[in-house]
Amino acid sequence: MQGVSYFWRWGLTCLWMGLIFFMSSQTASGEHSSWLLQSILSVLGVSYPPDGCLDILHMIVRKFAHVFAYALLALLFAWSLAPRPGHVRQAWLFSVAYATSDELHQLLVPHRGGQLTDVGIDAVGVSLALLVWVWRAGQWGRRYSQ
Q1: What CA–CA distance (Å, rounded) separates 79 from 101?
Q2: Tens digits of per-residue pLDDT, 132-142?
Q3: What is the pLDDT of residues 10-42, one digit of tens each?
Q4: End-to-end distance of the chain based on CA atoms, in angstroms?
Q5: What string of DSSP letters covers 42-101?
Q6: Three-class secondary structure of residue 65 per DSSP
Q7: What is the pTM of this model?
Q8: Within a 13 Å sphere around the CA of 30, how many CA atoms are in the beta-carbon half?
């Protein structure tokens, strides 16, 4: 049943890539995430943060979402490519290439803009996730290392 595992792994990876693409296709996504953040703060009992704090918090949450989304993508790529030699390097390259293509895609979406800094933030998420992958592989043995 290794074939099923292969398709399962790549299916989840492609599904996550599709979700990233869908989210980056949304126009005025900042307004949506701002509304969500304000709703969460309201539920937590924080109704009006000091001036400027909401904007800073909103930016931090959005950048953390980039780190998380691409960290998960990198782990999915590593899982899909394992245990081939060099799969961690390939996972890093595929993930950062997808981040770059996603920012280029956003240049074509109304009210969005591709940001080179976002690719850098995505690459941080990718790198952190793959460092954890390699570290955990050392604990598991050589099965998922390299």
Answers
A1: 21
A2: 999 988 765 55
A3: 999 999 999 999 999 987 666 656 666 777 777
A4: 25
A5: HHTT---PPTTHHHHHHHHHHHHHHHHHHHHHHHHHHHHHTTSTTHHHHHHHHHHHHHHH
A6: helix
A7: 0.83
A8: 12
